[in-house]
Design brief:
49 strands; alpha+beta; about 20% helix; 18-stranded mixed β-sheet
Length: about 950
C-alpha cells in the first residue's frame, strides 16, 4: 500500500515537473535594412514535456511561407482571389536560407522540410529525447523579410519593419506534433519559452517590443547598435523596428501600455483614461495580467478590426472619436491579453478564446456605452431615425453578422478548424456567434454572474498553461445548476440553426396552454414571455423541445406571447416568435421607404425607386415593392411596376423565390421561382415573359471549396406584340429548358462547363459550353472557351434565325440577357455583345447556324489588362456547306467579364482595322447590374 502511494506521489511530481518545464530561445540577429535581410544565430533549448520519447523535433519556419506562389500560403491567397501576392515581384517575397544546424558540440544535425512543406522543418536529435530531457539546437540562417503588402507584417515602404513569425520556433507536441502551415490566419501554435534576443539595427532605428529592453552595444564606427530583449513565459515575440516614431506608451494599472493604433488626434489624457478603463475592466473580468508590458499595433488591429461603420473614412464615420478609439483599443487589447496568456490550439480550438473575447467586448459596451447604437450618431438624424436600424444597439452587429451567414447557408460549426472556415466565418461570423452564444447562456442560466465567474475561473486556473475548451466546459458544468450540455453539443459542435415558433395557443380560465414547435433538429432551450400590453408578466424557459412541446403558464390577463423577448438567442428567424391574444393579426404591417434591417415585430414591406434603361423604353422608372431586408430571407418577393419615359408605357416585373435547404452538402438546396416581366423588345412593341423554375444546388462538404453545381429546370412562356408592318410567324412560344452547370475556380485555375437542353413546339436543341482559365507562374494568363450546339429537330424556318444559334450576338429569345437594344442591328447599342453561344466579336457573313455550330474562343494577356484574342469555328446551316470562320483582335479588359472593349483586327472579312467605318465594328461588354459587380468584391469572403 505504501509502495503504491509513493509511486503515485513520484508520478504526480514528475508530471508537474514536465508540465512546468520551459524551453529557452536565444537569438543573435542583425538587420540589413537596405537588403531587408535578417541574419540570425539561434540557440533553442527544447524540453520534451510529453510522456513519449522523441527522436526528432519539428519547427515552424513561417518566414519561408512567402518563398513562392505554390506554398500553402500562396495557395491560400489564390483561393481567396488575392492577386497582390501572385503578381508580386520576386524581391517582395520572403524566404529562409538555412546555413547550418548543429548541437551544442558543433555536431551537424540532419534536418529537412516535412512532406515538402516549405514552412515546416524537422531536426533529428543527436540522441533519443526522453520525457523531461532537453536538447539544444543551434541554427544559423538568413531571413529575407517579405513586404507588408501581403499580411500587413514585414517591411513597409516607409522603411519600418513589423516582424511577426520572423524566426524559427519549435512546434508543440502533445501525443502528436501540432504542425500547421502559415495560411494568413494568425494562428501559430507555439510553446511557452524564455527569450533572450540581441538584435543589431542601424543607429537611426528604434526597436519596440513587449520584452524588457536595454542597449548593450553601440558601435559608432559601424553606425549600428545592439539591443537586448529579455522575457520569460512567452509564446511568441513580435518586433517593431522603425525609424519613424509611431508608437506611444504610458503606464496604467501597473502595466506599461504600448500602441501605435490611430488615435484621431485625441488628447493624451483621454487615451490614458480609455486605456486604464479597458485594462481595469479586463483585470476585473479575467484576472491579473502576468507581464509588465502589453503592446498592440495598428497591424494587429487591422488584421482583426471591429467590422462595421467604424471602418468608414473619418469624415463619414458616425461614432465619436473617443468611442472610436476606445472600441478599437478594446478589441486589440482584449485579443492580445488572451493570446499572450491562454495557450490554446488556435487552429483547432479557437472558438473558446473568440467567445471570451467577443463576450467581454459586449459586456464592456453594455457597461460603459449602453446607449450606443449600431449606426452611432446617425440614429438621431431625421429620416434615418425612422428605420429599424436606428433602434439597434451597437452589440446587435454581432448577431447580424452571424445571421447573414446562416441565411446564406454558409455558417459552420464553432469547432471547425480555422483553415476550413469560409473567410467571412474565419474573420467575423464564427467569433461573433461564439460571443453571442455566451450571452445566450447567460440569459438561460438566469444569473449574470455564472458566465462571468466561469470565465474568470477558467482564466486564473489556466493562465500561461496549455489549455482547451474542454477545461472550460468542466468549470461551467461544475458551477451551473442547469444542464449546459446542449451548448457544447448542439451550439458549438454543429451548425444547426435555431428556429422556434408558437404553433398554437389555448386559453383557459386560469391558464394558457402554449404549443411551441422546434423547427430544427436540436435540443436548445427557448424562453417564453407573457406580456400585458408592454409589461413583462412572466418568463419561462422551455427545454428539450423535440418537434413540439406543450407548456402551461398562468393566465394573468396576458395580451401577447413572445419567444425570446429579449432577443438573446441567435435565431435565424424571429418573425414567427409572436402571438397576439387580443387581435386577429399577430403583427401589424410596416411600410418602409428604402431597405431596412429586419424587424421581427412587424410584417415589413419595403419600397424603393429603381431606374433602368433600354433604347425602346428610354429611362425606366420603377417602384419596387419587396420583402428582402439587408440579410437574405428564405422566401423573397419583389413587385416592380414601372413606366417608360420614352415609350410612355406601363411596364414592370415581379418575382417570387423560395429557398429550401435540405442538407449541408451534396444536394443541399432547392430553389423554386416564379417570375414575370413586361418591357419593350422593339419600337412600340412589348413582350411579356412568364417563367417557373426549380433549381437543384450541389456543393462539397468543404465549404471553402469553390466547386459548385446546379441543375435548373424551367419553363419559359413569351408573348410578343405583333408588328403589323413586319409580322413574325411565331410571336408567342413556350420553351422548356434543362441546364446543368459546374464550376470550380480560384485565382489560378478556372474550370466551368454547362450542358443546355431546350425543347419547344418547333425545335429542340442541345449545347455545351466549356470555360477554362489558367494563370501561369510567369503571370501569363490563358483563357479558353469552347461552345458546341446542334438542333435535334428544327422547324423554325418561317421565323428566320430567331431561334438559331448565333455566332456573335444571340437573339436571346428566352430574354435572359440584359441588352440595351435587343432588336438593333445598327448604332452603338448594336455593338454590345454578351459572350454566349458562338462568342465571336466580329460581325461576319454567316452570323447564325440553324443546324449546328462549334467555336473556340481564346485570349491571352499582352500587358496588364490588354489581351490578344482569337476565335475560330465552323457554322453549319441547312442546305449549305459548313463554313469556316475566324477573327482576332485586341481586348481591353477593364473589369473582366463586366466592362470590356474589343477591337477587331483580322477576320474572314480581311484586315478589318483598315476597312471603312471601323468604329462601327468595335464591340463592348457592359454590365449595369450592381449585384453582379458586387460579386467581384465579395467572392473572397464567401
Amino acid at each position: 500500500m505504501k509502495t503504491t502511494l509513493i509511486y503515485h506521489i513520484i508520478i504526480s511530481l514528475f508530471t508537474v515537473f514536465v508540465a512546468s518545464a520551459q524551453n529557452n530561445i536565444r537569438i543573435d540577429a542583425s538587420l540589413d535594412v537596405e537588403r531587408k535581410i535578417l541574419s540570425l544565430e539561434q540557440e533553442i533549448t527544447y524540453t520534451n514535456s510529453s510522456n513519449d520519447t522523441l527522436n526528432e523535433v519539428f519547427f515552424h519556419d513561417w518566414a519561408n511561407s512567402f518563398s513562392s506562389k505554390t506554398t500553402p500560403l500562396g495557395k491560400r491567397f489564390s483561393e481567396d482571389f488575392l492577386k497582390r501576392f501572385y503578381f508580386a515581384k520576386d524581391y517582395e517575397r520572403g524566404s529562409t536560407i538555412i546555413q547550418n544546424v548543429t548541437d551544442k558540440t558543433a555536431k551537424s544535425l540532419k534536418w529537412g522540410r516535412h512532406k515538402g512543406l516549405p514552412d515546416i522543418m524537422w531536426i533529428e536529435s543527436s540522441k533519443p529525447l526522453y520525457p523531461g530531457e532537453s536538447q539544444t539546437f543551434i541554427l544559423k540562417y538568413k531571413i529575407k523579410v517579405a513586404s507588408s503588402k501581403f499580411t500587413r507584417y514585414g517591411y513597409h515602404p516607409n522603411g519600418n519593419f513589423d516582424l511577426k513569425y520572423w524566426y524559427i520556433i519549435p512546434a508543440i507536441y502533445d501525443t502528436k506534433w501540432n504542425i500547421y502551415s502559415h495560411k494568413n490566419l494568425d494562428d501559430l501554435y507555439a510553446p511557452i519559452s524564455n527569450y533572450q534576443i540581441n538584435i543589431t539595427v542601424p543607429h537611426g532605428y528604434h526597436v519596440v517590443s513587449e520584452l524588457n529592453k536595454k542597449t548593450i552595444l553601440s558601435a559608432e564606427e559601424e553606425k549600428t547598435k545592439t539591443i537586448q530583449l529579455k522575457g520569460n513565459n512567452r509564446n511568441e515575440v513580435n518586433l517593431y523596428i522603425e525609424r519613424t516614431g509611431r508608437f506611444y506608451s504610458f503606464p496604467t494599472n501597473g502595466v506599461e501600455f504600448i500602441s501605435n493604433i490611430e488615435d484621431n488626434d485625441l488628447m493624451p489624457e483621454m487615451k490614458i483614461v480609455a486605456t486604464e478603463r479597458i485594462l481595469s475592466f479586463l483585470h476585473k473580468k479575467l484576472g491579473q495580467y502576468p507581464f509588465d508590458k502589453i503592446l498592440v499595433s495598428e497591424s494587429d488591429y487591422k488584421n482583426n478590426p471591429v467590422y462595421g461603420l467604424n471602418q468608414l473614412p473619418d469624415i463619414l464615420r458616425p461614432f465619436p472619436d473617443g468611442f472610436q478609439y476606445e472600441i478599437k483599443q478594446l478589441k486589440a487589447i482584449t485579443e492580445k491579453y488572451l493570446e499572450n496568456t491562454l495557450i490554446i490550439n488556435p487552429r483547432n480550438d479557437s472558438w473558446i478564446r473568440d467567445a471570451i473575447h467577443i463576450y467581454l467586448m459586449m459586456s464592456y459596451t453594455e457597461q460603459f456605452y449602453p446607449e450606443m447604437k449600431i449606426i452611432g450618431k446617425l440614429s438621431k438624424v431625421i429620416g434615418i431615425r425612422w428605420f429599424h436600424a436606428a433602434d439597434l444597439d451597437f452589440n446587435d452587429q454581432y448577431f447580424l453578422a452571424y445571421k447573414n451567414m446562416a441565411r446564406l447557408f454558409l455558417d459552420q460549426p464553432l469547432s471547425t478548424p480555422r483553415d476550413k472556415l469560409v473567410k467571412f466565418n474565419q474573420n467575423i461570423a464564427n467569433a461573433y456567434k461564439a460571443g453571442v452564444g455566451f450571452k445566450y447562456l447567460e440569459d438561460y442560466l438566469g444569473d449574470d454572474n455564472i458566465v462571468d465567474t466561469s470565465i474568470k475561473k477558467y482564466y486564473t486556473q489556466n493562465v500561461l498553461q496549455y489549455t482547451s475548451s474542454e477545461k472550460y466546459k468542466e468549470i461551467l458544468t461544475s458551477i451551473s445548476d442547469k444542464d449546459v450540455e446542449w451548448f457544447f453539443e448542439d451550439f458549438v459542435k454543429t451548425n444547426e440553426k435555431i428556429d422556434f415558433k408558437i404553433k398554437s395557443v389555448k386559453k383557459r380560465k386560469d391558464s394558457i396552454e402554449v404549443t411551441i414547435k422546434n423547427k430544427r433538429n436540436n435540443s436548445m432551450p427557448v424562453s417564453l414571455v407573457g406580456l400585458r400590453k408592454k409589461d413583462v408578466v412572466s418568463k419561462t424557459w422551455v427545454t428539450n423541445i423535440t418537434g413540439t412541446k406543450k407548456v402551461k403558464i398562468a393566465n394573468e390577463d396576458i395580451t401577447k406571447l413572445v419567444l425570446d423577448y429579449d432577443q438573446n438567442i441567435p435565431e435565424v428567424n424571429r418573425r414567427n416568435n409572436y402571438r397576439n391574444l387580443k387581435w386577429i393579426f399577430n403583427k401589424p404591417i410596416q411600410f418602409r421607404v428604402l431597405e431596412d434591417v429586419e424587424d421581427p415585430r412587424y410584417n415589413q414591406l419595403f419600397v424603393i425607386p429603381e431606374f433602368e434603361f433600354n433604347v425602346y423604353d428610354g429611362f425606366v422608372i420603377a417602384g419596387k415593392f419587396y420583402n428582402k431586408s439587408i440579410i437574405r430571407r428564405d422566401f423573397e418577393y419583389n413587385i416592380s411596376p414601372a413606366y417608360g419615359l420614352k415609350s410612355n408605357k406601363l411596364l414592370g416585373s415581379a418575382a417570387f423565390f423560395l429557398r429550401d435547404q435540405i442538407a449541408e452538402h451534396g444536394l443541399y438546396q432547392i430553389r423554386y421561382g416564379i417570375n414575370a416581366n413586361m418591357f419593350s423588345y422593339a419600337p412600340d412593341l412589348l413582350f411579356r415573359r412568364f417563367s417557373t423554375s426549380a433549381s437543384f444546388l450541389f456543393r462539397p462538404e468543404n465549404l471553402r471549396s469553390n466547386v459548385k453545381q446546379r441543375l435548373t429546370l424551367r419553363n419559359v412562356n413569351v408573348f410578343r406584340e405583333r408588328n403589323e408592318e413586319n409580322p413574325v410567324a411565331t410571336p408567342d412560344y413556350n420553351v422548356f429548358n434543362a441546364r446543368y452547370r459546374y464550376s470550380d475556380f480560384n485565382l489560378i485555375n478556372f474550370l466551368g462547363y454547362s450542358v443546355d437542353y431546350q425543347i419547344s413546339k418547333n425545335f429542340s436543341k442541345l449545347s455545351t459550353t466549356i470555360n477554362y482559365r489558367k494563370l501561369f507562374l510567369n503571370n501569363r494568363q490563358l483563357n479558353l472557351r469552347l461552345f458546341a450546339g446542334a438542333f435535334i429537330f428544327n422547324d423554325t424556318e418561317k421565323d428566320g434565325d430567331f431561334f438559331s444559334f448565333a455566332l456573335d450576338r444571340p437573339t436571346d429569345y428566352l430574354f435572359d440577357f440584359n441588352y440595351l437594344g435587343r432588336s438593333e442591328d445598327t448604332g452603338l447599342v448594336s455593338q454590345q455583345i454578351i459572350i454566349a453561344e458562338g462568342g465571336f466579336k466580329s460581325q461576319l457573313e454567316f452570323p447564325f447556324a440553324n443546324q449546328w455550330i462549334t467555336t473556340l474562343n481564346a485570349n491571352t494577356n499582352i500587358w496588364n489588362w490588354i489581351y490578344a484574342y482569337g476565335d475560330v469555328g465552323i457554322v453549319k446551316n441547312k442546305g449549305v456547306s459548313a463554313k469556316y470562320v475566324f477573327d482576332a483582335g485586341i481586348r481591353l479588359s477593364l473589369v473582366a467579364d463586366y466592362f470590356e472593349v474589343f477591337f477587331p483586327v483580322v477576320s474572314n472579312k480581311g484586315w478589318e482595322i483598315a476597312q471603312p467605318n471601323y468604329d462601327q465594328q468595335i464591340r463592348f461588354i457592359i454590365t449595369l447590374s450592381p449585384e453582379t459587380l458586387i460579386g467581384l468584391f465579395t467572392r473572397e469572403w464567401y
